[in-house]
Amino acid sequence: MAENSSDFIPCMLIPLQQHYLLLPNSTIAEVFPMPHNIQSVDDKPQYWVGHYDWHAKQLPVIDLESLVETDTYDTSDANKLCVLHGINASADISVYALPCYGAPQLIHLDESALKLAKDGFDSEFLHYQIQIGKKIAYIPNLDKIEAALSQ
After folding, report:
1. E strand or H helix that includes residue 138
2. DSSP class of residue 34?
3. What is the pLDDT of residues 128-137, one digit of tens each?
4. The pLDDT value given to residue 60
């Protein structure tokens, strides 16, 4: 008997520097080659890469791993920019972007594929860290991330 296709969720697996980001497919607005004209910003936390003008909007560009791990990563070798739709209605962020290190991959997951990573750490910006094969993927807390961006 065939499995019910509604048991699987289409997700995007986005390569970061050290980890992957797992998001519902519907949160991705666009992915394109990393632009060279990202404007640097002053007086922002270390995870802010800068701003980018996209479709007449100024996008905040953030490094998710720097935000989650409170370390600073060099994003100069990122080769794509992934634009995300904001989902938190109370935050003043409708779109924002993340540098990524390869093309996002569409995958279909069901509950049995979600196994917690053994060596995960706590961050208010993550719901979970899961193991997908040999990859560690972040399931982000988008509400918290977007609230931090709107401050």
Report:
1. strand 135-140
2. P
3. 999 888 888 9
4. 95
CA distance 23 to 55: 23
Q: What is the rounded CA–CA span in Å between residue 82 and residue 103?
A: 9
Q: Is the Cα torsion angle 70, 73, 40, 68 positive or negative in sign?
A: negative
CA angle 143, 145, 32 (to 5 degrees): 110
> Between β-strands 126-132 and 135-140, what pairing exists: parallel, antiparallel or unpaired?
antiparallel
Burial category of 94 from C-beta neighbours within 10 Å (exposed 0-12, middle 13-18, buried 19 and up): middle
pLDDT of residue 5: 53
Between CA 56 and CA 34 the distance in angstroms is: 18
Task: Say how many CA atoms lie within 13 Å of 63 toward its Cβ.
Answer: 25
H-helix or E-strand containing 148?
helix 142-149
Q: Minimal CA–CA distance to 65: which of 106, 14, 113?
A: 14
Instruction: Tell me the two tokens of residue 129.
Output: 């860290």
Rounded CA gap, 143 and 122, in Å? 16
